[in-house]
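Practice record 12: protein with 2-acetamido-2-deoxy-beta-D-glucopyranose.
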Amino acid sequence: MVQFTRSFFSLCLIAASFAAPAKRTVAQVEADIANISNQVGALDNAIKGLPDSGLVGALAIPTEMELLGTSLNTGTSDMKATGLLDETDATTILSAVKVIVPIINAALQHLTAQASNLVNNLLGLAEIRASVDSALQKLQNSTDTFVATLAAAAPVDLTAEAISIQIAIDAAFNETIAALSEIPVRL
Ligand SMILES: *[C@@H]1O[C@H](CO)[C@@H](O)[C@H](O)[C@H]1NC(C)=O
Ligand SMILES: *[C@@H]1O[C@H](CO)[C@@H](O)[C@H](O)[C@H]1NC(C)=O
Ligand SMILES: *[C@@H]1O[C@H](CO)[C@@H](O)[C@H](O)[C@H]1NC(C)=O
């Protein structure tokens, strides 16, 4: 309940920030989501490539997270610029989001699985750990904001579903962040 209240509060803030300088279209948001989807795939591949991909592969992970964050942020600003969505458009976008969120979740699960592979764990190298941690937290924020923006733009009958997606993916980020924090850090 506390969670819902907090999310609702942030939705109000986001709703209050809807000021459309240039009106965007639903098609633009869908194109953004296609881009997000490609980028999630690239991140997931980079994660699954460990540990064989070595140091270069490990260093690519925060970079891929940042690229994904950038595509999510683009989706967020285009959605804000599109304004309030009608039932049909909101349903279309929500359906597309329901396809990509499980892929983000799968990438997080793969990262959690890497965290439990403690032998020669490159994610334990201090520098990589710091940049993965920071990129992961930014990505959590970008993902949260993207889904919260959709919840705020959608008609009220779709709000609860969007918020539940937001809470679930937020929880998945928290689990991965917690799993990474358990890898011993090496210099
Ligand atoms: C997708 O992302 C890439 C890289 O950020 C960008 O160059 C491209 O314009 C984007 N495509 C769309 C359809 O927004
Ligand atoms: C997410 O990022 C935005 C913009 O950088 C920032 O204003 C906001 O406080 C961040 N939210 C959280 C929960 O970190
Ligand atoms: C994720 O962790 C943050 C920081 O501890 C917390 O504020 C938030 O409520 C957590 N999210 C969920 C869904 O548990």
